[in-house]
Amino acid sequence: MSRFAVVLAALLAALALFGGLASGAQGRGLVTITVDTLPIANALPLDLGVKKGFFTAQGIDINKRTLQSGNDIVLALANHNGEVGYFGWVPMMIASTQGIAISAVAPSEVEGTSIADNWQNILVKGDSSIRTPADLAGKTIAVNALKGVGEVMIKAALRKVGVNANSIHLLAMPFPTMRTALRNGQVDAIWTPEPFLSQALNLDGARIVMAPGPVLGKFWPVGGYGALTDWVKSNPALAKRFRTAINRSLTYAQSHPDEIRALLPAGTGNVRLPIWSPLIDRAKLRQLAQYAKDFGVITKLPNMLQLVPRNITGGKTLQGQVTARAIKLLLDGKGVKTLPQGEYTFVVSDRSKTGSFVLRGPGVLRKTTVKGVRRYTWTLSLAPGKYTYSSTGTPRFKKTFRVLS
Q1: Which pLDDT value is given to residue 55?
Q2: 316-404: in CATH 2.60.40.420
């Protein structure tokens, strides 16, 4: 079998796994929106939202088309083969700076905080001599597309840790074929998301050597849902209804990970799930645009107001943690003392088997359960006032911060 045939067979298999999950509810009076998406676990809130009826409630029937890369989705939208696309911020920026006006309809997910909790990393073979990011210099790394999210984030992260970003060689290939390419020595490393990351770790004995997103910052923005700016302007009410449905899908998926895992192919249920949030950190997004320009992926900075309109809710992601020994609430790795009034996503890691994390403040009372060790995510609107985050059990911890108007 030729290499092309192998690649095509693997791609078709992946599309069969992920392409048929979302099928819109049928019924009179529904408006059909074709969504071009990717064959990765990050896109599953769309499927779950269809299943739960969130789109039907907004009068929308979803027709899902699965493509291979964000650049493919840009071309599809530009040729009017779809109304909305799920793709990375970098392809959106490329389009916006090359005469294809794209506007975000809603954010989607962010990366984690470390190698341990991130869902999109650089992997090498278990017996590879590559042990640290410095060892990647001069090596060949597989990405799903050139001039995309992977290229920008890998090069920016390598530069940040002192490695010559221009020394690496990038080879574009579909995510489903990367494991074979790594095993066969076609590439030295692969940059891949779930479910392929867990398959490589658990089935192939691969190792994680770097998590580019967390190197750049905690909860680094990766992708979202976008459309041609002209479509958004011509269909403002429909775009708003789609945003309402997908935002509800994102928050529901984050709070019901077991229902997301049930949509995954057999044998991949224990994958690392993304952190989905309806908020976008505009400061991090501007930094991503600068990285894209630094590495020649775009020649000028995009019009950020067009790319991310004001109706897309901005906000920060906070990292909470409770253990038997301490409680923390961090913003970009630093303890929180004061915050401006606004929207926030709290990602709380409850590592205590005998206590829980409790957040109290004006109009807010959220807590984790005492039993079990897991991650919780809450997207909240914080009003001015004093907030406390504390633990139950023994010993007990209590800290405060203030939200300023």
Answers
A1: 98
A2: yes
Domain 3-112+220-307 architecture: 3-Layer(aba) Sandwich (3.40)
In b/e form, how buried is each residue of 185-216, taking b as 16+ CB within 10 angstroms? ebbbbbbbbbbbbbbbbeeeebbebbbbbbbb
Task: Tell me how far the alpha carbon of residue 169 is from its chain's centroid.
Answer: 24
- DSSP3 helix / strand / coil % (the chain, rounded to 5): 35, 30, 35
**Which residues lie across from 370 on neighbouring strands?**
none
Q: What is the distance of C-alpha 101 from the center of its chain?
A: 22
**Domain 120-216: which topology?**
D-Maltodextrin-Binding Protein; domain 2 (3.40.190)
Query: pTM for the whole thing?
Result: 0.89
DSSP code for 47: H
User: pLDDT, tens digit, for every residue of 98-142?
Assistant: 999 999 999 999 999 999 999 999 999 999 999 999 999 999 999
Residues 6+ apart with CB under 8 A from 260: 41, 44, 45, 48, 253, 273
| Same fold for the pair 120-216 and 316-404 | no
Pairing of strands 374-382, 342-350: antiparallel
Return phi, psi of residue 69, to 5°.
-145, 165
Q: Whole-angstrom Cα distance, residue 225 to residue 69? A: 14
Tokens at 268, concatenated: 């991949």
List Cβ<8 Å contacts ≥24 apart for 339-342: 339/382, 339/401, 339/402, 339/403, 339/404, 340/403, 340/404, 341/382, 341/383, 341/384, 341/403, 341/404, 341/405, 342/314, 342/315, 342/316, 342/381, 342/382
- Give the tokens for residue 227: 């459309």
